[in-house]
Amino acid sequence: MDLMNFQRTAISRIQAAIEKGKEEIILKSCTGSGKTIMLTHFMDEYLKCHANTVFIWFTPGKGNLEEQSKKKMDAYIHGAQTKLLSDKTGIDIIASG
């Protein structure tokens, strides 16, 4: 996949933040700018050197954003092991109340 210059810049900034020890990163960009593709590209590259890493992807808002993101990740990353919380496969959900 060919990335645009601003997308490559964003990915480089994410990589730099990780190298500086940032544990939480938020990517904000316009609708349709390719946020999912940028983060998926970053994660794919990162996992090549850090295989024991787990990414947790939050998609606040209405609709089925998590399902859209999962489909893009599965299509972009060969052999991706993405899961939704609704899958409940191998995921223990603890509710307090």
Number-wise, the strands total: 0
Distinct helical segment count:
3
Rg, nearest Å: 14 Å
What general outline do the C-alpha atoms trace?
Answer: globular
Strand content: under 5%
Uncertain residue segments: none
Can you write the helix and strand succession as a string? HHH
Estimated helix fraction: 40-55%
- The helix/strand class is mainly alpha
The mean pLDDT is 81
What does this structure look like?
The chain has 3 helices and no strands. It has helices spanning 5-19, 35-49, 65-76. Helix 1 (5-19) packs across helix 2 (35-49) and helix 2 (35-49) crosses helix 3. The longest helix has 15 residues, at 5-19. The protein starts with a helix and ends in a 21-residue tail after the last helix. The mean pLDDT is 81.
How would the blueprint of this fold be written?
Elements: H1 5-19, H2 35-49, H3 65-76
Helix pairs in contact: 1-2, 2-3
Supply database-style keywords.
mainly alpha
Give a brief outline of the structure.
This protein has 97 residues and is mainly alpha-helical. The chain has helices spanning 5-19, 35-49, 65-76. The longest helix has 15 residues, at 5-19.
